[in-house]
Amino acid sequence: MSQLEAIQDQPPWLPRLTAHGGPRFLQIADALQAAVADGALKPGDRLPPQRQLAAQLDVDLTTITRAYDEARRRHLLEGRGARGTYVAAPKVELAPVLDLGMNTPPPPHGVDFDDLLKQGLSQVLMRTDNDLLMTYHLGGGGHAERRAGVQWLAPMFGPLDPAQLVVCPGAQAALAASVLALTKPGDTILAEPMTYPGLRATADQFGRHLVAVAADRHGMVPELLEQACRQREPGLVYLNPTLQNPTAVTMPETRRRELAAIAQRCHVRIVEDDPYWLLADAAPPPVATFAPQQVYYISTLSKCLTPGLRVAFVLIRDPRERERFMAALRSFALMAAPLTAALATQWILDGSADGLLAGVRSEARLRHRLARDILAGRYSGAGDGLHVWLELPAYWTAAQFALAADSEGIAVTPAQAFATDGAAANAIRISLGSIKQRGHLQAGLQRLSHLLARRPESSSAAVV
Fold this sequence. Notes:
This protein is an alpha/beta fold and 464 residues long. The chain folds into three domains: 3-87, Winged helix-like DNA-binding domain superfamily/Winged helix DNA-binding domain (Arc Repressor Mutant, subunit A); 98-111 and 354-453, Alpha-Beta Complex (Aspartate Aminotransferase, domain 1); 115-351, Aspartate Aminotransferase, domain 2. It has 16 helices and 16 strands. GO terms for molecular function: transaminase activity. In the C-terminal section; belongs to the class-I pyridoxal-phosphate-dependent aminotransferase family. Keywords: Aminotransferase, DNA-binding, Pyridoxal phosphate, Transcription, Transcription regulation, Transferase.
């Protein structure tokens, strides 16, 4: 067959490759997946030979080989030796659980993560003495790690002194060290009524009292915070002001300034846990901008890039406070894992982290659009970030709904998991990133929508 004949005989499912659509082999694999999903390609259909497809798309043979390999990895294709490559029969899964309960970044749109990981590790191993990757390091991070931290935090703060940063093995470790450094057993920690469960676990473990300060649609209410500070003399105030977990509220700049001013007047420290700032669309400046000496600022890579990068950067301006924090951190975590920290540093400094972040942001927005379309009037997300906070109709309680969803093979998180010190909202958090395939996420959201529309079944059990 001539190249002209091949092009004229082009199947309708073939993609139109674009310069800005990501790696070409992934565009082809995505088109194959879409064609299988909408029925344009059916199980048993024979695909064109690789050379013919390369001619039709005007790409090299290696691109087609990688596309077919990726499609096989997704269980879309199967090879039958000399007979060619065929669309595979659907993979049968028995009662798969669709995880909408874990807040993790989605697979990055238009990014070959496997290739990025291999290249990153290759660069680390090539440029670093392997002995240094497998030995103890000084706590708080070396010069290269802190320089990477400065670059990571530049969108929030602009230029920073690397000496003001501490490198930690994840945000939870940073949060625990903050609590140890700033409070003593029996002290009060103030937080919003719905807050990150890791804070409650830390407070319980260390014998601190977690007390709620009421929030409105903009976050923690300033007047009530000042009142609580003067009445309770807390050890610290915990804030998660951007795409708050779980409510997805982003605190406006005015509210951030008000809370920072109160912290200064009342001489109380704020721990600003800000894992989602880089995922947000035009997020306001951090609270730490308005009260630099009062705030411990925590930014993690795990929520923006991938959970396997257990690296967080903590900005603490006061050197004495920083030493206090590092002493607390060393009591349970000497250092971030050197190999992980080296990979994070490599990715940030060579620009790979920016590309990965852009892919995560793009995929998160696509998933939010999907959730908004399916959940219609009940969607309460901001259009970005990793989760949606869904208020339930009165005929459902959050616990009932989570149990009913579980019986449908879907994991969601009820509001009780986030309650600071009392009654919880009648709502659930839906995480959009942990399901790898967008089509599976769509199916899960549709099942939740159907569940929302019907009333719970009677709790009376049959006797057998």
